[in-house]
Design brief:
The complex is a heterodimer.
Chain A lengths: L3 H11 L7 H11 L5 E4 L5 E5 L5 E7 L4 E7 L5 E6 L4 H4 L3 E4 L4 E5 L2 H6 L13 E2 L6 H7 L5 E4 L4 E3 L4 E4 L2 H16 L8 E7 L7 H10 L3 E4 L2 E3 L19 E3 L1 E2 L2 E2 L2 H13 L5 E3 L7 H6 L6 E9 L7 E4 H16 L5
Parallel strand pairs in A: 3-12, 3-13, 13-19, 14-19, 15-18
Antiparallel strand pairs in A: 1-2, 2-12, 4-5, 4-9, 6-7, 6-9, 7-8, 10-11, 11-20, 15-19, 16-17
Chain B lengths: L1 H8 L9 H11 L5 E4 L5 E5 L9 E6 L4 E7 L5 E5 L5 H4 L3 E4 L5 E4 L4 H4 L14 E3 L5 H7 L5 E4 L4 E3 L3 E3 L7 H12 L6 E6 L7 H10 L3 E9 L19 E4 L1 E2 L2 E2 L2 H13 L4 E4 L8 H6 L5 E10 L7 E3 H17 L1
Parallel strand pairs in B: 3-12, 3-13, 13-18, 14-17
Antiparallel strand pairs in B: 1-2, 2-12, 4-5, 4-9, 5-8, 6-7, 6-9, 7-8, 10-11, 11-19, 14-18, 15-16, 18-19
Helix pairs in contact in B: 1-6, 6-10
Classes of the chains: A alpha+beta, B alpha+beta.
Chain lengths: 343, 338
């Protein structure tokens, strides 16, 4: 039996930023293998896990790439200069610890005197003023370990909170949904799905949903049920609190920054939840796209919705989710996937 | 490479108006190509049979279109209203000489003289939309007679050699990649069947690249293009990205793509093995056809190579012959070996 915390920890370990998913792809293919009719990896690195069925062709993507840094230069003093891969704000970057591919650890910093004098984060809006120090003793020492083109990820870890019900982790976005997909595959082991299913661990979502776009082009699905995170703002007092709550079940997607869910798919998910006693809420995400954005119009018409995991502090080094929501998401995806979907 | 760059940069073809460039290249490559095709967007597809056949198509791509404007209506003053392609800086075009594509009608992008305003009046840089081309017409009728709406307007700075091995002139940046591709088709036998794709409308949201991706559905993409070099007095060294004189450029990532590590590292290895000077391009804000070509069909492995060019997008981009030579060598090795 898959365990949410255990899987998330392993996926965080294997994760690297967009474009560098090879080790994660290998791990996911190995984990999914016992539950698949066939598995393949395409040119962009998407891992496509098929469960054969007669009916509607459903793509179920969760992205396996994460945010991070790419080394652009080692400066004359041996400090690492970098650019970001994906959306990490300057506020998040400054003083956050990262781990590089060789295992080197470094926090992102800017000159201490500048930080002391700074009034606001806009003084650091240019990432090129920041650096990462892996214990530089000059250019040559750093160059022995680090070279341009290497990548880094958050050096934070997956931790259980509240007696194990709550998980604090880097990269809940979107590894926790890769976990949902694996749980769904496990739930479907002995099922005879009434749809043709393509579970896709997608590449390069964080840099513009690139993997999903290409996958939708060559797979030509009829339907997309995306598994991604959605904002949980239950811990904060927002003026218009339209976000989701953690622990109250997976959220059925109504829209995101680049896609409007189709009523037929939303209704299908609602029925699948109600027939199986799965708690659910609705995800009305306003900002940011998901793989549904790309899949909807990559080629022909693809009707979409999704099963989202409410997540606090998305894109930070410490995202927070409920383990129960993930277990329920695995059930909901499995239920919706095997239930006959006519469009 | 000089002759290739000279002849291709002298042709006029702003985005969407690449006919002259496309037709010229098509005529030149026909004796060397297996097939030559074009499409409605004016992309040019040149297929050359190799010794072997790849699993999925290999594309080597470069843009054909250059920076410039499309003419709109003449204003009451006789000056021509303009619509710019992407990636043009108003600071770099004001007061510069332009020409109607394929013609002799010349004009200057109007500017309010500092002799009238004093220094304070020069603080504000106008928007591209506000600029107009003064073609020496006295009134609206004169303007209408000189330039028809829809005509391409290109920089009027012909190719020249200057200084210590430098080339300058309009479209030296935009057609540097196309020059390399033309020579590849003429001189190199590819290891595997290769599509050489000259894209149209690369400077209007890479529209040519989108359509090209769907036509060929590539599995491997290599783009060849100018890399903006920041090694100029106004810029601090940390932000140079690439440097003139340090060889061909090898990107890590650009606006629309993270280059495939395996492909990028293979290029670095063949360069090192063959003594071709290569530098890493650290700047990542630029945007080429790589992004659309590798994602708009089934997906492809992608890498980008280039030569450092100062003043990209202006009327006088400059490139050094040694860097251009290094780029040619690297592109040739790719087609012969990869």
């Amino acid at each position: 039996m898959f365990d949410v915390y255990d899987l998330q920890s392993r996926l965080v370990e294997a994760a690297w930023p967009s474009g560098f998913e090879a080790s994660q792809a290998k791990l996911l293919a190995r984990l999914a293998e016992p539950y698949a009719d066939e598995i393949r990896t395409d040119a962009l690195g998407n891992v496509i896990v098929r469960r054969k069925g007669e009916g509607t062709k459903i793509a179920i993507p969760a992205h396996m790439d994460v945010l991070g840094l790419i080394v652009t230069d080692i400066d004359k003093d041996g400090y690492i200069r970098f650019d970001t891969i994906g959306g990490i704000s300057s506020l998040t970057l400054l003083s956050t610890p990262f781990v590089f591919e060789d295992g080197s650890l470094a926090a992102v910093r800017a000159e201490a005197a500048r930080i002391a004098k700074a009034d606001n984060i806009e003084d650091f809006s240019d990432k090129r003023d920041m650096y990462a120090d892996v214990g530089a003793l000059g250019k040559e020492t750093t160059e022995r370990r680090i070279r341009p083109g290497m990548v880094a990820k958050y050096a934070t870890h997956t931790v259980k909170l509240a007696g194990g019900k709550i998980i604090s982790t880097p990269y809940a976005d979107d590894l926790i949904c890769c976990v949902s997909l694996l749980l769904a595959l496990e739930n479907l082991r002995d099922a005879k799905p009434e749809n043709d299913l393509y579970f896709i661990f997608t590449a390069q979502e964080e840099v513009g949903t690139r993997g999903a776009r290409a996958a939708a082009y060559h797979l030509e699905p009829d339907v997309c049920i995306v598994a991604d995170v959605c904002d949980a703002i239950d811990s904060l007092s927002a003026e218009y609190p339209i976000g989701n709550k953690i622990g109250e079940g997976p959220a059925i997607k109504l829209r995101d920054g680049g896609s409007l869910s189709h009523r037929v798919i939303v209704d299908h998910l609602v029925r699948a939840a109600e027939e199986n006693g799965i708690p659910y809420q609705f995800d009305p995400m306003v900002y940011g796209g998901t793989d549904a954005t790309a899949m909807q119009h990559a080629r022909g018409v693809v009707l979409s919705s999704g099963v989202s995991i409410p997540t606090r502090d998305i894109h930070s080094p410490y995202e927070t989710v409920s383990a129960d929501d993930v277990v329920q998401a695995g059930k909901l995806i499995a239920a919706a996937a095997q239930r006959k979907l006519e469009i | 490479m000089k002759e290739y760059l000279k002849v291709l940069s002298s042709l006029d073809g702003v985005s969407g108006r690449e006919d002259r460039v496309r037709d010229f290249i098509a005529d030149r490559v026909r004796p060397h190509a297996t097939t030559v095709e074009t499409d409605v967007l004016k992309n040019l597809f040149v297929w050359k049979k190799g010794k072997g056949t790849p699993d999925r198509p290999i594309v080597v791509a470069a843009a054909m279109d250059e920076w410039g404007f499309v003419a709109e209506e003449a204003k009451d003053s006789g000056a021509i209203a303009l619509s710019a392609v992407d990636g043009m800086d108003p600071k770099a075009v004001i007061g510069k000489r332009f020409r109607v594509a394929g013609g002799e009608t010349r004009g200057v992008i109007s500017v309010v003289s500092q002799h009238l305003t004093g220094k304070t009046g020069t603080d504000k840089v106008p928007e591209l939309r506000e600029l107009a081309l003064d073609v020496g017409a006295k009134n609206k009728e004169g303007g209408k007679a000189a330039v028809k709406p829809g005509e391409g307007i290109v920089y009027d700075y012909p190719f020249a050699e200057f200084g210590d091995g430098f080339y300058r002139g309009k479209a030296v940046d935009a057609r540097l990649g196309a020059s390399v591709l033309l020579r590849l088709i003429e001189e190199v036998s590819p290891a595997l069947d290769t599509w050489f794709v000259f894209t149209a409308s690369s400077k209007i949201e890479h529209r040519g690249g989108v359509v090209a991706a769907r036509r060929i559905d590539p599995g491997t993409v290599l783009t060849v293009e100018a890399a903006a070099a920041g090694d100029v007095p106004l810029q601090k060294p940390a932000l140079w990205s690439v440097r003139v004189g340090e060889g061909a450029t090898l990107g890590l990532k650009e606006f629309g793509s993270v280059y495939t590590r395996e492909l990028r590292e293979r290029l670095a290895r063949i360069a090192a093995k063959n003594g071709v000077k290569v530098q890493i391009r650290s700047g990542m804000r630029g945007s080429g056809d790589a992004g659309t070509l590798h994602t708009r069909a089934s997906g492809a492995k992608v890498a980008g190579i280039g030569a450092p060019v100062r003043y990209v997008g202006t009327g006088n981009p400059i490139v050094h012959r040694d860097d251009l030579e290094a780029l040619w060598q690297l592109a040739k090795l790719f087609v012969e070996e990869v």
